[in-house]
Structures
1.
Amino acid sequence: MGRNAKPTAGTGPGVRPGRHGVVLRGRLNLTVDGTAVMDLDGTQILRDLAAPLPEGVAGTWVEPFLEREKVALHPFLL
């Protein structure tokens, strides 16, 4: 946390434009094997961490910042 994401006081999922990219807001969680996952209104987004999450961060709302050219939507079928 901290390189491209920050904790937020806001709650609830969201997507909005930022200064140089896109800002997502979701709830950060850890799986049983320690993988970071951000829940964006029911959609699970795997997060690559540069370092382990600090104590007490899991379950909080975070806002990662993404560069516009690195954002893509991919349809899928279950």
2.
Amino acid sequence: MDLPQLFLVGLVLLLGVLGVLVPGVPGTWLVWAGVLWWALHERSALAWSLLVSATALLLVVQVIEWQLPPRRLRGVGVSRRMAVYAGAGALLGFVVVPVLGAAAGFVGGIYLCERLRLGTHGEAWASVRAVMRAVGTSVLVELLACLMVVGAWVGAVLVG
């Protein structure tokens, strides 16, 4: 696969990860489609193994999400700005401490957004707890799965 096409696959994967944070955008399926695109062009054992593993992981995550409580976004004050902060924090955390750092970065992004909006530590932390109860679990599960797939894809590209 040539470099421009590899860049486009990476862009689709990035849009998928960001799409996880936006309600109504099929972020998980964009990540899967990016891996499928890469595997169809790469045609190696590593590519097919990654596609099968990503498919299994993302399907399991979909089943897990159906078992979690429904999202109540507006009821706890979740805004687009908060989603951007949470997503940026998760991506930064993922880069600093691969996979596990995404969770801390996600929560840190929400805290930073609320601290800037509300002003005090106590109010911001109370808001973070409310948001995490309402939406954090399902988004975090899906985000971590997508970041794991993207991380595996980056590793496969670097190795292959």
3.
Amino acid sequence: MSFSPSPRLPRGPRRRSLLASAAGAALLAGCTGGSGSGEAGAGPSAVERAHARAARDSEELAARYAAVIAAHPGLAERLRPLREEVVRHAEAFGAVSAASPTASGTAAGTAASPSASVRAAGPANESGGSDVVPTDEKGALALLAGAERKLADRRARTLLDVPGESARLLASVAAAGAAHVFLLTEG
């Protein structure tokens, strides 16, 4: 007994294909709309605010690195690559002019003397006080590691509030900050 093909071939898309397409379109529409995306004059979006804060935080962290490098020139070779990466992070978030990668003189308004005070409302200084660069290298590295850790944690929390590329950028920079913590605390 031979089976012959069905005399009636389906025309057009099947019901399952239509349902899957409709569900996919609904998901895409839900992912692309942002809060206040169609409102004129609604102020900066959550993404713009997150980027501005991340740029500011990275600039302040770069200033911390510069202060520690100035206070402890023996750490310059170890810290300069980390600081340069922090400067690149600030630029990735849209910072117009990140602090200069050299530690000669001042950086972003931070005094560069051994008793330099880091007066940023940045990652390790949200209480309003000022952090003084410790006189010992171990303490200075701990200061930077603490600042990196707090900033990486904040960025990890923030990435939940922003969509797509911004979340990926925040996640990447938070991971780099966590790696910096490891490099600062090893050895």
4.
Amino acid sequence: MVERKDIGSWLSGPDTSGVSAYPGQRLGLPESGPSSLARAGRRILAICIDWGLSYLIAHLLLAGNSMGILAIFLLEQVVLVGTLGYSIGHRIAGIHVIRVGGGSAGLLAGVVRAVLLALVLPVVITDADHRGLHDRAANTVLIRG
């Protein structure tokens, strides 16, 4: 005898019981204002500033060496995000990095985020809370300050 499977779930539509009303809700973050999830515009502005500063420093000190640009960018991300919770670009954009649940990111999270950030692809693959793979791997979230 063949056991009948319940097909009601796919006929009635997707299960929305675990879906958040807004990005960041599952992480306990407010919908807007301070401590809410940093949106794409601020993130893009911050990385453009950081990359531009890295390029400028490498151009002045290392004759524009492309590996030097990357090294300066990684160093800035590891040291500043790992110790202060923000890079220069983050600070200007009004955002900072914290651990999920609160607290500072820490140096290990700074290293993990920076290496995956340099690979680019982990940044563009995001979850429902707009966290890239680099933030998920480091157990961090980028919030508005």
